[in-house]
Design goal:
By secondary structure, the chain is of the alpha/beta class. The chain folds into four domains: 127 residues, Rossmann fold, CATH 3.40.50; 57 residues; 168 residues, Hypothetical protein af1432; 58 residues, Molybdopterin biosynthesis moea protein, domain 2, CATH 3.90.105. The protein contains 16 helices and nine strands. The strands form three sheets. A five-stranded parallel beta sheet has the order 2-1-3-4-5, with helices on both faces. A two-stranded antiparallel ribbon has the order 6-9. It has a two-stranded antiparallel ribbon with strand order 7-8. The chain is globular and about 100 Å long. The N terminus is likely disordered.
């Protein structure tokens, strides 16, 4: 177990001034992942050890005092769940973290129970989220170690006090009050960590991302774009942060809708379903209401579908009544939706998405925010198509056209790969296949 300086006085407990190095063991069968973790955690605060599998990790734990273990779920011979279960038996005080993918959720749930896992993070991980998780784990370890030190100190002092005469009674009271004050401070700090607002936000985001069709990379892009636009239009860091968080959680209300709604591009929905989709922001508002520090965030999400013309939902607000954050979110959301295929069946290029939103300025979107969009999107590293995508009948395909998606048959067998440029030979081969197969095939090309 990590130790603290023995001369630290309990009369002056200050966890922030303690210079403690924690030993972190990273276990993964992929060398590149271990290198990434080691590079990310490079800090005087951490001593990093690595192992390429569970068996090697257990050998290291037999020889070293490990504070935190970060293990991948999928590893040969011994998976992450089995490995962390072994760690729980041989080193119960070690904090255990699991890296897992979307497809491993059932295994992850079992691993949480079997391996007594403290937290799990989804791969690919978010660097900021992983660093914050490690920081919270080390803060918890500091609190536990300091609490243990104080308890031991109390026991020692009580033994000394037992041997003193009655004339030292006042000194005993004073000393006890000092120790209780230190314990109370530690308890308050621990509660603060547990109730940390960032933990609440991550919980909501993880809830959304459990659905493979929501959250994830799309809302991260929306959040980044919201922050860039807000940086140009808002005054305070708090306002910018609220809009950024609203982008991250903007799809929370969709969890309450039928799968057929959020699994269909918005512009392909019927009018009643579009209205149901837009009113889902009310569900998100109610879900976030208990988290009072997120009041502004929930309000931004509530009004994200208000139209600049006053025809939107849920309250049909006039342009000057719509929160600025909601107007920013509407533009950022639909730009990302348009380029990722969430707005239409086909994806638009960056320029195509800007042109689409610009045509709807003054009706659905704030024109001043639309004017900022061409400059702001250049500051992102979002990958978009070079040209607009469209579905095209086979008879309209000509040599030189480029596929924007794989061409698959009804059995999901690859016929032609994304990026293929049609020539006379490939057109003839595809034509022969279509003649022999009665099942329709969607062909997406760049135009």
């Amino acid at each position: 177990m990590t130790t603290f300086d023995s001369d630290l006085s309990s009369e002056n407990v200050d966890l922030d001034t303690q210079h403690t190095q924690f030993t972190v063991l990273c276990v993964d069968d992929e060398v590149s992942v271990l290198k990434s973790l080691k590079r990310l955690l490079r800090s005087p605060n951490y001593r990093i050890l690595t192992a390429d599998g569970g068996h090697e990790g257990l050998k290291i734990i037999e020889q070293e005092t490990i504070d935190i273990v970060i293990s991948d779920m999928r590893m040969p011979n011994m998976d992450g769940a089995e490995f962390l279960s072994e760690v729980a038996e041989c080193s119960p005080e070690t904090v255990r973290l699991l890296l897992t993918g979307y497809s491993d959720m059932n295994s992850t749930i079992a691993a949480v129970n079997k391996g007594k896992i403290s937290r799990y993070l989804q791969k690919p991980w978010n660097n900021d989220e992983l660093l914050l998780t490690i920081e919270q784990c080390t803060e918890k370890l500091k609190l536990e170690n300091e609490n243990r030190r104080l308890v031991e100190e109390i026991e020692t002092k009580n033994q000394s006090l037992a041997s003193l005469n009655n004339s030292l009674e006042n000194k005993v009271k004073q000393r006890t009050q000092q120790i209780n004050a230190a314990l109370s401070k530690l308890k308050s700090t621990n509660i603060l960590v547990k109730n940390n607002l960032n933990a609440t936000i991550r919980s909501f985001y993880n809830l959304i991302s459990l659905n493979p069709h929501l959250g994830g990379e799309v809302t991260i892009k929306i959040s980044e774009l919201c922050a860039l636009i807000a940086d140009q239009t808002m005054q305070t860091p708090k306002e910018i942060k609220d809009v950024k968080l609203a982008g991250l959680l903007c799809e929370l209300g969709l969890l309450g809708l039928d799968e057929s709604i959020w699994n269909t591009p918005f512009e392909e929905l019927s009018l009643p379903l579009k209205e149901q989709y837009m009113r889902s922001s009310q569900q998100a508002f109610m879900a976030l209401s208990p988290a009072t520090p997120l009041k502004n965030v929930s309000t931004i999400i509530l009004h994200q579908h208000e139209a600049y013309s006053g025809d939107g939902l849920p309250d049909r607000l006039n342009a000057d009544q719509i929160p600025l954050g909601s107007r920013i979110l509407a533009v950022a959301r639909d730009y990302v939706y348009a380029t990722s295929g969430r707005l239409h069946t086909v994806r638009l290029s960056s320029q195509g998405a800007i042109e689409y939103l610009t045509k709807r300025a003054n009706q659905w979107y704030d024109p001043e925010i639309i004017n900022l969009l061409p400059t702001v999107v250049k500051q992102t590293d979002h990958k978009t198509l070079a040209k607009n995508e469209r579905v095209i009948p086979f008879n309209d395909i000509t040599p030189g056209m480029s596929l924007s998606r794989d061409v698959l048959n009804h059995n999901n067998m690859l016929l032609l790969p994304e990026g293929h440029i049609f020539n006379h030979d490939s057109l003839a081969r595809l034509s022969n296949f279509l003649i022999a197969d009665d099942n329709p095939i969607e062909i997406f090309v760049l135009t």
